[in-house]
Amino acid sequence: MDNTSLHEFCWEDGYIFCPRCSNKNIYMLKGDRYRCSLCKYTFHDFSGRWLNYCSLDHNSWEEIIKYYISGWSAASIARSLNLSYNLAHKSLKVIRSSLLIRDETFIPLLENPLKIRTYCSMAEGDARFKHCLGENAPVFSVRYAGTGVKVGYVPSLNVKEVLFMQTRKRFCRSMFVCDYPGENGYLLFSCCAYLRKKTRCDNFLDHRRSLEAESSFWTMCFEMLDRYHKFSPESFPLYLKEFEARYEHGLSSLKALISKSICSFVPDLKH
Ligand SMILES: [Zn+2]
Fold it and tell me: Cβ(228)–Cβ(239) under 8 Å?
């Protein structure tokens, strides 16, 4: 399955259908476009799908998927494919968002398919700047499941409740991790550095090592986070869902998962 093209991922049963009305009576136009015989909608392979957020052709997307799997940064991808940094950055965001949204329980966190609601008042350039104690940060879980992990959003818990739990607490950069009482796993959230300073958890290298000693999942997470440098607290669930996918899948099945994911239709979040 390693050589399945993005075209095949878009039309999985081989039938091209109208993304508007699902009609399968389609005729071909010039330039790889199609027209629906019923509603007359003109479309192409990527219409209505995640891939369509970036004006990139099939080959560029194939390359980007390959680089993403190898953990390349947006800057390296931009250089290699001669794209603008913004476009390379957006293409990675498209991959991560499409992976996140496969889990419908994360949809309440989204303002739109490519934007997670902000909650940290330390966001750069915010004129109403005030110290943030992470109080609005959503709480996530990582649970061991089979040979992989399952990342979840835990709306029933808030940061205050988590901080008061009698468990081991660890800060690693902007990420807070503690044991999940009664579960085989962890509770996590991410917010700005101010909270970390307040809680005086400065020995994060020790915290990182203790987590890495517990599971190869954490070793992989930190390796990836080292490559990604700084990320905004709001991007945290995108990375968690990415790590869940990377930990679960081998290289070739990860390629299939990502291809399938970015070739799926973007859900309408208004409903
Ligand atoms: Zn139609």
Answer: yes
